[in-house]
Design goal:
This protein has helices at about 30-35, 140-155, 165-170, 185-190, 215-225, 250-255, 280-285, 365, and strands at about 60, 75-80, 80-85, 90-95, 100-110, 120-130, 230, 235, 260-265, 295, 320-325, 330-335, 340-345, 370-374. It is an alpha+beta fold and about 375 residues long. Among the domains are: about 60-165, no CATH class; about 250-374, endopeptidase fold (from Nostoc punctiforme) (Alpha-Beta Complex). The two termini are about 25 Å apart.
């Protein structure tokens, strides 16, 4: 842990050279107005609080047709916390009570790892966020359908990346290829000061410009970027250091008290499995959907025959986003890792895969500990 000075660097001086400052490279479109290993561990910077106060890696051609057409009638069914939206008896979107993220169908696209020999992911799933957590009572069917029609339409507009599209902009060889530094938050990557709701202003660490750790990467994607602008409101998840229900700073806190709901509760291994073999079961894998957040114990030593690992959520030290099944049918995730020197969906330092399959190299399947839907 280390202490950061609270000196403010005006955004204006950096606007010409840094994405995300004043005018992002990608302006969100208001459619309503138009119509790992131990070294991958992340760390919270210690703050003094005061009560006063190159080429694109994903390809997707805009497509007209069913994926984008405004629907006059959308029907909803609810099972547990999940509300499914259907058009002409075909499921097109899934809302989860208490979560910001909405998974929906859209134009098919292939997300490439940017590294030769690494299987790509082809998907019709798109992930956008609501301005507030979903509540089927307060967001009635009329408002819900208006939002969903707008979101489906924007999926077919060039330059309005969803969460997955944004994530792939930072991998190896991509347009915003980011590096890795332990403790580097989203504002360090951007070179901007951050004014959290539960601490004084935190200056960017100038030695970490252009670099980001795993939990900072998620904050960049879900909290800094607006993936959708609807009725003049940018869809971003509120951020803090430690406030429950917001996008907190460390991976372990994002699991324990982050936004949304837990999908796979923390466990060191499924019932009946070898101690600390975290490989998810078929039931757990089926519960984890594209866009969900997966969590790992990055400090457990698997080089010994009988590892002694942490037994609760405080042992979580790495996190990423599940992006879907790749062409080899493995559950692939994207995260910022030290060995790969930044965001990756490739296999440097261990495959970015968390299911146990023949030929999968690395310990991420064993390190898997839980999942949450933001």
């Amino acid at each position: 842990m280390f202490r950061v000075s609270a000196i403010f660097f005006p955004c204006l001086t950096l606007a010409a050279s840094l994405p995300g400052c004043l005018l992002d490279v990608e302006e969100p479109l208001d459619i309503a107005q138009i119509g790992a290993p131990p070294e991958d561990d992340d760390e919270v910077k210690e703050i003094e609080t005061d009560p006063k106060g190159k080429k694109a890696s994903g390809s997707s051609a805009p497509q007209a047709g069913a994926a984008c057409t405004v629907a006059a009638t959308i029907k909803y069914t609810t099972s547990g916390d999940v509300t499914t939206a259907s058009i002409n008896s075909t499921a097109v979107a899934w809302f989860t009570k208490g979560a910001y993220t909405v998974r929906m169908t859209g134009p098919s696209r292939t997300l490439s790892a940017g590294v030769t020999g690494v299987p790509s992911v082809t998907t019709t799933m798109w992930i956008r966020t609501l301005a507030t957590p979903f509540d089927p009572v307060t967001m009635g069917t009329t408002a819900r359908s208006a939002w969903l029609n707008a979101a489906r339409a924007v999926n077919c507009v060039t330059g309005t990346s969803d969460i997955l599209g944004l994530a792939y902009q930072y991998i190896e060889g991509a347009s915003k290829d980011a590096g890795y530094a332990n403790g580097a938050d989203y504002h360090d990557y951007l070179g901007l000061a951050w004014d959290p709701i539960d601490a004084n202003i935190i200056a960017a660490d100038t030695t970490q410009l252009g670099k980001i750790d795993c939990s900072g990467y998620l904050r960049l994607l879900f909290g800094q970027h607006a993936n959708f602008l609807y009725n003049g409101v940018e869809a971003k998840i509120p951020m803090s250091l430690y406030v429950a229900g917001t996008l907190t700073r460390s991976s372990k806190d994002q699991y324990q008290s982050g936004p949304g709901k837990v999908i796979v509760p923390f466990r060191t291994q499924p019932t009946g499995a070898t101690a600390f073999n975290g490989t998810p079961t078929a039931t757990e894998l089926a519960a984890i959907e594209v866009g969900d957040i997966v969590f790992f114990d990055s400090s457990c030593d698997y080089s010994v025959s009988t590892p002694a690992c942490g037994t609760d959520w405080t042992s979580i030290g790495h996190t990423g986003i599940y992006v879907g099944r790749d062409t080899a049918n493995n559950a692939r995730f994207i995260s910022s890792r030290s060995t790969a020197n930044g965001p990756t969906v490739a296999n440097t330092g261990g495959w970015s895969v968390f299911n146990n399959a023949t030929g999968v190299s690395g310990t991420y399947p064993k390190r898997f500990r839980g999942a949450r839907r933001f």
